[in-house]
Amino acid sequence: MTLLRVEEAQALVLAEIARGAAEDVALDEALHRVLREEIVAAIDAPAADNSAMDGYAVRAEDIPVLEPALRAWRAWVGAAFLRRYLQTAAGQPFAPVTPEELRASLTGYLLEKTLHEIGYELDQRPEWVSIPLSELLDLMKG
């Protein structure tokens, strides 16, 4: 038995694959297709530095002003998600039936996600851990 290095095996496989001609297709026809070549944006977007993670940088002094709007947005998005979830899950054996079951399910889910986020922030960005910690306090209050 002859063993090959990964790079050698990849080269053998790629040598056997015929590369098709490039073809332009509409986005809705691109499902289950593979790009033939790399796509590179013509310009940087945004043109200036941006935050390293999904989101936007906020000045510390703006947080007290923005926090009520963020809480309202989070409540609205959560309610929209919950409505759709309950519509989709209706009649399924796992779906909560009573308000108490729903509250217990949601609280457990939010608690699990918040504890995960606390662990992540402690590991990756300790200076941000106050964000999920405030969520945990809100969960405990409510």
Structure description:
The chain is extended. Helix 3 packs antiparallel against helix 4. The protein is built from four helices and no strands. The longest helix has 27 residues, at 63-89. By secondary structure, it is an all-alpha fold. Among the domains are: 58-95, no CATH class; 96-142. The model has no long low-confidence stretch (mean pLDDT 84).
Q: Approximately how much beta-strand content do the residues carry?
A: under 5%
- The tally of helices reads 4
- Which sequence of SSEs, written as H and E, runs from N to C? HHHH
The value of Rg in angstroms is: 24 Å
How widely separated are the two ends?
65 Å
- Shape by Cα distribution: extended
Report the helical percentage: 40-55%
Instruction: Tell me the structural class.
Output: mainly alpha
Q: Give average pLDDT, whole number.
A: 84
Major sheet characteristics: none
Give the low-confidence spans.
Answer: none
Can you count the beta strands?
0
Tags for this model:
142 residues, mainly alpha
Summarize the structure.
By secondary structure, the chain is mainly alpha-helical.
What is the fold's blueprint, element by element?
Blueprint: H1 6-16, H2 63-89, H3 99-124, H4 130-141
